[in-house]
User: Fold this.
Amino acid sequence: MKSNKKFHRVTVNEVHQKVMSQLIKTHHPKKSIASIWVQWLSWIALSIAGMSIAVWVMGKSTCQMSMMSNQQAHDFLIISILGAALAGWKAIASSIPGRITKNIFKIILTVTLILVVVFPIYDAHFYWNYMNLFTCVIKQPRCFGCVLALSAIPWIVLGFLISKNAPLQPMWTGIWVSMAAFLMGMGISQLLYPICESCYVMAIYGLSFLIMILIALLIGTWWFSKWKK
Amino acid sequence: MDDHNQKHRIQNPLQWQSWSKLIAQIQAGNHDAYAQFLNEVGPIIYQYIRKRIFDSQQVGDIYQETLLKFHKAYHTYNPQQPLGPWLFAVVRNSMWDSLRKYKKQKEREFVLEIIPDTISVNKSFGWKEDLYEALCTLPKLNREAIELLKLEGLSLEEAAKILKISVAALKSRAHCGYILLRKMLKDRL
Assistant:
């Protein structure tokens, strides 16, 4: 029994020595990553800069309604921007090992996300009779493309920042990245091209959201698990 | 290092602080600090894995993978933050990843109760004669290559020298010859 134990320990030591020598051989200075605050602020700044350029290229709004005159649209905008900011933070935190967000943060994030979903649904029944979900998308494909294009910018920026970190659960990080990017894209779309019909919001944004989540699962998981390979 | 000594080290906050400083040095590219860190923290990681995994062979593999993952992720550690949560998050994740990989491998494997005969060789097969016949029908270039390498047992360099060609060309000729031979003798198997 004793001899077995001894043999076992020697084997482990051998493994340890072998791995250690390999790691030290390939070891080179690596700069520590920036703090969550810095990454988060960089994401917001770069995304806004990128989206400003995109909006400038896309041109002015053709919507006749004024967002400021509609309280519901105004509230929806605030909720989506807040949701984007919180989801962005969560995405960055999830890409750094051992970073656990506080419970109060999780509660605020959950409530905000629920509000983002519930808001148009609650508001929808007023318009349900004369608005059709599918005709919205068919009649206004430009809006749908606009939301997706605007969401793609913060997605790429955040994805690039996060790919420098080490996401332990790439799939979840990918979902948070998509959520943050989509909410930011949606918020900016709402700010520039305000939509007051909730069904329209549901159709355009709901479909965009599904596409973004699908992208997160396909590309995001692959991208954010690259550091492990 | 015995278990008691190790437990004492883990519970000592000063020890963790010194390890945090070591990671800062590792990030700066200090090889000695890296070796010291791995020698001191390695046994703790190993114990952590061993307590949770019963298969001793898996423990070694998982330990190896955990150190590799640490190597890829140490730049994400902020020396101002506590080291424990960061380190064990990496270890735990590495452990789960490895277990998932093992599970997938196990699912693909299947135990054979009876090993099937992959080939049934015809006992009455006259190897020498048929092989000789097949060799004779081979193109001259391929036949020469095989004869020198397999029948006369020369090395690649020696055979190449005799044929006045490069080793790569000889290999190519021999390889083509093997393919032709296999095709010719296929019906016999």
In short: Residues 1-8, 63-68 of chain A have pLDDT under 50 and may be disordered. DSSP finds eight helices and no strands in chain A. Chain A touches chain B at residues 8, 11-12, 15-16, 19-20, 23-24, 26-33, 35, 96-98, 100, 165-166, 168-169, 227-228 (CB under 8 Å). Helices of chain A lie at 2-25, 36-58, 71-94, 103-124, 133-139, 141-163, 170-192, 198-224.
